[in-house]
Every structure is written in structure tokens, then in C-alpha cells.
Predict the structure.
Amino acid sequence: MLSYEQARKYYDRFGEKQDHQFYENSPIEKLIEFGDFDKANSIFELGIGTGRFAKNLLDNHLSDICKYVGIDISSTMVDLSKNRLEKYTDRVKIVQSDGIPQINEENESFDRFVSTYVFDLLNNDDITALLSEAYRILKDGGYLCVVSLGQGITITSRIVEKVWSLIFKVKSSLVGGCRPLALQNYIEKTKWKIIYKNVIVSFGVPSEIIVCKKL
Ligand SMILES: C[S@@+](CC[C@H](N)C(=O)[O-])C[C@H]1O[C@@H](n2cnc3c(N)ncnc32)[C@H](O)[C@@H]1O
């Protein structure tokens, strides 16, 4: 796995290239379809990146009063997302994090916790800790909405998964520190009710989409 420092440096360098990750579009559209975003008044995003997903939500899916908080470990990403979301400064807050899996927000203060292609670069302990944090900061009935690299479900996507995992093992920085994951295994059934769960293959790359409701 990349350390926090390595992840920060990698994404500081990667910056705007993140917007060319073509395989992310269809899975993210599905997340939006099942996330019931028009009913949300407050969103928290982990790993906001260039702010592309946030801008799409703010432009097309959220109410005019919905507030949006995003964090990212990379200062480049924080700057890019702040610029991209400039017109929403009155209700958007973007903060650089140190990477540790603790979120500086109050209990039960958000309707949605979203994160796209971030859990797949975290270690198992951090995934578990951040899902607990998501549970803590979500209001009752709030939604956890996540997409990560997933496990293959077709011949091509299984091959992509295996090759990707192999490259990750040899040199994780070659794949941005990300590896295919079975994120559903981390979702505790006593805490969450699954609303939508699927693996979508786009350009051969499998992505797992999970939308679940806080119980
Ligand atoms: C693969 S990019 C995805 C960015 C964006 N969510 C997207 O879908 O385009 C991963 C993002 O997570 C951020 N990141 C990595 N580790 C993090 C951590 N521990 N806490 C917060 N952000 C992190 C990176 O800086 C980067 O912006």
C-alpha cells in the first residue's frame, strides 16, 4: 500500500490527469441514479479529487440549499476542486486532510457520505475505520454511496483484475496505489441496509458500486 505521504505526493503529481479515468463514468452514473441525491441537504465526500463528481452533483442533482464538504489528502486536488467549485463557495467547504481515518465532523450531521475510487487505495484497517466514521457522521437513514475498483465478473474483467492486482503487488505506484477490492465484505449487515450493489465493467475495468442506508 502507499503510505499517506506517498499517496499525497502521487496525487499532487497526478492532478488533472484524474479526469481522464474514462472507466469511472458509467459506475458513477449508476451511483448517482441510486443515491437519491435530490433529497439530500448535506453531503460529505472523502477524496474529492478534482471536484468533478461534486460539480456534477451540484450542477445537476442537488437542491440549491444542499451543503457540500469534501476532503482530500493532496493539496493539488484541494486547489483543483476549490477552483472547479468556485461558484458554490457559499455552501461548499474543501479541506486538506492528513490521511488518517478520522473525520472532523459532528455525529449525525450529513445525509450522504460519498467516495469514488478512494477505498481501493486504503489499507484494510483504514477502510474499516472510515466506514465507522461514515456511520457516525451520517444521520439516521442517511446513505453511504461508494464506488471502488472491484472484482471481475466477465472473462475480460477477470483478466484485467488479475493483471491489475499483479502490477499492484510488484509496484503499487504504477496503478496509483489502487487495487481491485471486494468492498461489500466490509459492509456490516447490522449497520447498513443495502439499497443497490453491483459490479459494472467499463472498458474491461470492473467497478463495484454500493449504496446503503444507515440503520
Ligand atoms: C483515484 S483518486 C479519485 C478521485 C475522485 N474521487 C474521483 O473519483 O475522480 C483518489 C483520491 O483520493 C485521495 N486520497 C488518497 N488517500 C486519501 C486519504 N487517506 N484521505 C483522503 N483522501 C485521500 C487522493 O488524493 C485522490 O484525490
Observations:
- The pocket of S-adenosylmethionine is lined by residues 4, 7, 11, 18, 24, 46-47, 49, 52-53, 71-74, 77, 97, 99, 116-118, 121, 176 (CB under 6 Å).
